[in-house]
Amino acid sequence: MKKSNVLLFVAVIFYIIHALIYTQVINLYDIFNDTIAQSIYDFVCTSGIVSGFTSAYINHEENKTVAITFTVISFTLLVIYIMGMLIGSM
Fold first, then answer.
1. pTM above the 0.70 mark?
2. 90 falls in which pLDDT band (50, 70, 90)?
3. For residue 14, what are the contacts with CB-CB under 8 A and spacing of at least 6?
4. Which of 8, 19, 24, 36 is the S-S candidate for 32 at Cβ 3.0 to 4.6 Å?
5. Dist. CA 69–CA 9, nearest whole Å
6. How far apart (Å, rounded) are the C-alpha atoms in residues 12 and 31?
7. What is the pLDDT of residues 31-69, one digit of tens each?
8. Cβ distance 4 to 61 under 8 Å?
9. What is the maximal distance between C-alpha atoms in the chain?
10. Measured between alpha carbons, how far is residue 48 from residues 10, 30, 42, 90 in Å?
């Protein structure tokens, strides 16, 4: 397996975990206290964003469809994360 494929796989795993946490299928706040649950959510979200943008950058010459898809998903996660942080701080 090439490194770019491994990074794509990691990005997809983080996207799936983020979707499960964001839609409350996995409710971290019932399992952990507030600070640990928020830390886990921050880690999953930022890891998905970084690995998505990185894999999109690596694959932009080989497969433009994958690069565009991962860029759009990562940008959407970034907007959701920033808006959630802004709303949470009000």
1. yes
2. very low
3. 44, 47, 48, 51, 52
4. 36
5. 14
6. 24
7. 888 888 888 888 888 888 888 888 888 888 888 888 888
8. no
9. 45
10. 8, 23, 10, 25
Please state, in angstroms and rounded to a whole number, the distance separating the CA atoms of residues 68 and 14: 18
Helix (H, G, I), strand (E, B) or coil at 22: helix
Contacts of 37 (CB under 8 A, 6+ apart): 28, 29, 31
pLDDT, tens digit, 9 for 90 and up, residues 8-19:
888 888 888 888
Contacts 24+ apart (CB under 8 A), 80-89: 80/22, 80/45, 81/45, 81/46, 81/49
Q: What angle do CA 50, 53, 58 make, to 5 degrees?
A: 120
Residue 62 CA: distances (Å) to CA of 3, 45, 53, 56? 13, 26, 15, 10
